[in-house]
């Protein structure tokens, strides 16, 4: 068996996902992974404004929604 073929095709490469989220949102949000939970905290926001997701994609959707609402002045 060649290297990489025994890797789970659905497994998340946490380092790459974290790097991609940080590259996209890092100017406005701090991105973390804590105990398998993906988290984003908007700079200078209260603790209760933490965004969370079970996957990087779920967190990205929540950040995008939060960003859109803030840009529209709805938050």
Strand segment tally: 3
Series of secondary-structure elements, N-terminal to C-terminal: HEEEH
Through-space gap between termini: 52 Å
Extract low-pLDDT stretches. none
Chain-averaged pLDDT = 89
Strand order of the largest sheet: 1-2-3
* Structure annotation, total helices: 2
Classify the secondary structure makeup into a structural class.
alpha+beta
Total discrete domains: 1
State which percent range the strand residues make up.
15-25%
Largest sheet: 3 strands, antiparallel
Helix content: 25-40%
Radius of gyration: 15 Å
Indicate the overall shape.
elongated
How does this model look, in words?
- With 75 residues, the chain is of the alpha+beta class.
- Helix content is 37%, strand content 20%.
- The chain has one domain.
- The mean pLDDT is 89.
Outline the secondary-structure elements:
Elements: H1 14-25, E1 29-34, E2 37-42, E3 51-53, H2 56-71
Antiparallel strand pairs: 1-2, 2-3
Q: What keywords describe this structure?
A:
alpha+beta; 37% helix; 75 residues
Brief summary:
The chain has helices at residues 14-25, 56-71; strands at residues 29-34, 37-42, 51-53. It is of the alpha+beta class and 75 residues long.
